[in-house]
Amino acid sequence: MTTKAARPNIGAIRSSFAPWNDPGTKPLVRFDGVTKRFGDQIAVDNVSLDIYEREFFALLGPSGCGKTTLMRMLAGFETPDAGRIMLGGVDLADTPPHKRPVNMMFQSYALFPHLSVAGNIAFGLKMEGLKKVAITDRVNEMLKLVKLEAYAARMPHQLSGGQRQRVALARAIARKPRVLLLDEPLAALDKKLREETQFELTDLQMELGITFLTVTHDQDEAMVLADRIGVMDQGRIVQIGPPTEVYEAPNSRGVAEFLGDINIFEGIVETFNSPVASLKSADGHFKVVDEDCPAGGATVWLAVRPEKMRISPKAPPKGTANVLAGEIWDIGYLGDWTTYIVEIGPNRLIRVAQANASRIVEHPLSWDDKVWVSFDADAGVVLTR
Amino acid sequence: MSLRRDKSWMAAIAPYLWLGMLFAFPFLLVFKLSLSDVALSMPPYAPKFDPGNIGRFVRALDLDTYGRLVSDPIYIKAWLSSLKIAAISTALLVLIGYPIAYGMARCSSGSRQLLVLAVTLPFFTSFLIRVYAWVAILKPAGILNAGLHALGLPPVAVMNTDAAVYIGMVYAYLPFMALPLYAVLEKQDESLIEAAADLGATPFRAFWTVTFPMSLPGVAAGALLCFIPIVGEFVIPDLLGGSSTLMIGKTIWTEFFNNRDWPAAAAAATALLITLVVPLMLYQRQQARVLR
User: Residues in chain B whose beta carbon is closer than 8 A to a beta carbon of chain A?
Assistant: First the structure.
């Protein structure tokens, strides 16, 4: 079982936190038409993005999409070729990295190997010119926060990966930055530790009230951690929104396919009486509920997540919105879930995911079984690009 | 694993064989020589090794020569002067070699190759010839004074002074300082400097709090590689130094070839070796502790 940690009532705070919907709120960080080139390679392409006070923002995208470059420009390690980066309304262009009120947790952690755990955490405080007593107090506070009190005198090479990650985190937040930058914060941890640390990070962020900007290629990580996700591809931000929005209402096939698995049916809108539309595709007719569906005649793509489809050896009852007949091509058993690859036509494979709610199934589905796949009218989203 | 199947000990034997034949055995000969007495014979010492009567041979060996080393101030003076010259030269080498190595490590990888080649290039010429070249530069009517004269400046008398010795030492040993330093600096993780900047360190402070302390093993390696041979250096003080430049290497040479006092030369060489080996072992032990 997961143990319940003592914490403020985060649920109430998180569920109502949406400063991006309030036009009166000023963003803490503003990227304004930022472009960065490396040689003739364009790494960041005219990106505009607002990040708000106390927000946990994740930049998500495949490697090489420019997300790390974007973050490094905020830290001051790269200079934009065009555009402005503002922090609290002040242009950062003339502020060198060591004077920016942001701190970064490096992907490699970049712990100083010649300094102890306490020495690493104290480094930034010493640079600030704090008094010795104040430094010791703050270091102890940080050690307690990341539960490393007993390791103050250890050297970095004497720590495990998880401990090193926590030292890097403590060192970065010791100076109370206005924005904490996290470069693939959990990439170097194993799966179990990564999941634990995800929840610890969100709790910590709430507790400290610091704005977090994280960069990751792992969609699970982005979804668990972030208040909002900015999906990046080839130097551009293709969608910004809370995790549920980018997952359930992607604005393009690219975003839909990058975040999790999805089945996409190309078709033409036959009729559209808002919000009900009828689509015609090579796999049959679909009945869809989507307010944003274009008018009749338009080419669209219907995107349906595998877990929103049902699979059954018997024909579904009459009146089911969408039904596809097929044969099971492959089965992936994951314990909690099973993924079925179903052939619904020559070379037309779709994915259907079912939660394994019971331990024992009398007639489990098997390879080459004839099955029916069905989904509700509101299960899919109509995409226009 | 049994010795029969594991052949890795064969690889380990090569360096030991090399050390044994080319270092340990000759050293034992020198050490034995230092326990002998001067004699008017060929070779000029006694007793000679006599396999027929080892007892008498061993009884004839004594530490008298070492007594002479301590009682005659020339040896102590030469030894102290050598240590002083080596220490100052090594300090100069760190001061000059560090910026060179740092510059090399911060270059683009293309020009880096070229710079490493440039640092090693002098090795393609004989050491002796390179030191003679400095004679041509530093001598009273040499290139240096010709240059000064052309600029309308008064000539300087560098040749046959300690200054000339330092110039020669720094010149000859610079690669031994710059290369180990470069090796350490080049490996340093760029993100550590970024982390220091991120945590509020100016470039200057980032250098002194991160780059420099982390390069200390390189400084130590370079300093050892320079200090030890400089203490025993003979060619440079002989060619560039004056009659007042006192170095133990020169003293040993004089004892061997001018005074034909082989036991004294051997004892001085043995004493020198011991004074160099002790700090080296301390360094090794400290390194081993760091690694653990």
Answer: 189, 191-192, 194-202, 205-206, 209-210, 213-214
